[in-house]
Amino acid sequence: MKIAVINTGGTISCVGNPLAPMSAQQFATASQQLIDPILQQQFSDLQVDYLTSVTFPESSTKTLDSTNLQPTDWCIMAQGILDNYAAYDGFVVLHGTDSMDFSGTALSFLLNNFDSRGVGTALLSKPVIITGSQVPLYYQANSSAPLSLNFNTDAFQNVCGAVAMAQSGIPEVGVYFQNNLYRGNRAVKTNASEFNAFSSPNYPALAEYGVALTLNNANWLPGPVHSSVSLDDPSVLAAQQATLAAITASINNFPVMQLNAFPAYYSQSPAKSFMAGLIDAMVAAGATGIILESYGEGNFPSGNPDNPNQGAIYQALDLANEQGVNIVNCTQVLSATVNSSAYAAGAWLPQVGALAPADMTPMAALAKLMILMASASHNGWTRSQVQELFQTDLAGEMLSVNQLDSRRNTTLLPGQSISALDGSAQLLNDPELGPVLTGAGTTSPLWQLPSAPSASALPGRLVMQDDGNLVFYGRDNQALWATNTGNPAGASSRLVLTGRYVAATPAASTLKLQVLNYSANTIAATLYPAV
Question: Which helix (H) or strand (E) holds 387?
């Protein structure tokens, strides 16, 4: 088993008083002497290599406190992994804690790529584990004294745990901290003074390492659907390296900013607001995306409580949207799913183009939006496609709102639903009727089962199976209806609700309810509109 370690910097590789960063080579030399023999006790066949050629040009030591990391540095980390991908079974990235939750998302989108429908075209097949510490790994009494392991640190435990996780085969980017492995694009720094610095408020841990290692495999991403989209394939790897090169060249052209909701001055006549001035300044400074960190379920001040569209904040966001700035309505609440329609104070946000991130963290939203915009030209995506991809669960970063996936979220239970990304239509598994597709502003179903199940057979489950067959099972587990699109050889598939329903002019609707066989990248069935 061969594991590569990339040291970007941060507390874990600092020494001295005051603390100062070691170079990657100094850290590697110390680790080979002091850490590797301990790792060999547990993993006798382990080979650890330190990729000291991965450096960051901003610093004289070529390592960085994560406070100073910028988007191009995400690309440097990703390039180091891709350039060495074929030679190693897993990767450990040592990183400062301050911006680890940004990098955890960035790497998950720099090491994976998708087509305009969100189907993976280049997918990670090996573990990439990010870790760091609150206390340095090494101690040095003075500049001429030898290094030794520091007393009572989280650094040693986190390195050991991260190396173990890098051998697990988990095909995604993870953050390992204080005995827990979290999905990298779900992790949040929630404690600045204790060893349990990170948590994952909206998604369970991928693994836990106490007395024994517990792998929560059911929470993992499934990985590439087949070898033709895996980074293990040299042509796929080369294509992803080309994508990364394009992103690296353009990412600085797509700055994204965060803006917290906070009590601030506004007036209604004339329409004026301190916060509107901030939004105007962001756009003037070149922001191409704004991540709103709203209150609660997605409420943001408009500048006019009674008539939001007359408020200065509304008008500033509306103008930004018209100028091509992508606006996202996240929440500043740690554990939450955004539902801007719950209150009038947030229901106006879709009118100014605000995108819905479900339960994505603001850090994940920033990195995801920036990378999607930076890769749009290379991938041939339009702005509307970027916005659709942003609101689609691609790498486990958010709740999947518009699809069932045969390898991840397979089942629609009674009372559960999926919806179009703009909320204009909903497929509900009605406990008394079975699956019913409705559009906003309509009373009649757009689609439902051709033959209504008997009351005694309900409620039931709608299941997207991994053979490509969409099946509705009754309460006694008998199949009541199916698309009959199954393939005994397997056909990993999704039931996807896409497009928009327009009640006033149905002919203008683009709504589709389809079964997508993403193993073959074909449409297996179209349930709506009727064909």
Answer: helix 383-390
Q: Where are the domains of the chain?
A: 2-250, 254-356, 403-528
User: Three-state SS across 483-527?
Assistant: CCCCCCCCCCEEEEEECCCCCCCHHHCCCEEEEEECCCCEEEEEE
The answer to whether 237 touches 231, Cβ cutoff 8 Å, is: yes
Q: Three-state SS for 463?
A: strand
Neighbouring CB atoms inside 10 A of 238's CB total 13
The pTM of the full predicted model, rounded to 2 decimals, is: 0.96
pLDDT averaged per 10 residues in sequence order, the chain, 531 residues: 96 90 92 96 96 94 93 98 98 97 98 97 98 95 88 95 97 97 98 95 96 94 96 98 98 98 94 96 98 96 96 98 98 92 92 96 98 98 98 97 96 97 95 96 92 94 98 97 96 97 89 97 96 76
With contact defined as beta carbons under 8 Å apart, do 428 and 436 qualify?
yes
The confidence score (pLDDT) of residue 20 equals 86
Alpha carbon distances (Å) from 73 to 204, 228, 334 = 28, 29, 26
Q: Quick one: pLDDT at residue 341?
A: 83
Residue 505 confidence (pLDDT): 87
How far is Cα 90 from Cα 129, in angstroms, rounded to an integer? 8
The token pair that represents 57 in the structure block: 């040009």
Q: State CA 101 to chain mean position distance.
A: 10
pLDDT of 375 reads: 98
Query: Do 2-250 and 254-356 show the same overall fold?
Result: yes
Query: What are the start-end ranges of the H helices in 14-135?
Result: 24-34, 36-42, 71-83, 100-110
Residue type, 189: K
Q: Tell me if residue 153 falls in helix, strand or coil.
A: coil
User: So what's the pLDDT on residue 496?
Assistant: 98
Q: Is CATH 3.65.10.10 correct for 254-356? A: no
DSSP 8-state secondary structure symbol assigned to residue 301? -
**Superfamily of structural domain 403-528:** Bulb-type lectin domain (2.90.10.10)
CATH fold for the domain made of 2-250: Rossmann fold (3.40.50)
One-letter amino acid at 40 equals: Q
Q: How far apart are CA 323 and CA 102, in angstroms?
A: 26
DSSP 8-state class, residue 459 = S
According to the model, what pLDDT value does residue 425 have? 96
The residues near 121 (Cβ < 8 Å, ≥ 6 apart) are: 113, 114, 115, 229, 236, 239
Parallel, antiparallel, or unpaired: how do β-strands 90-94 and 2-7 relate?
Answer: parallel
Cα–Cα nearest to 174, from 166, 182, 162: 182
CB-CB neighbours of 375 under 10 Å: 24
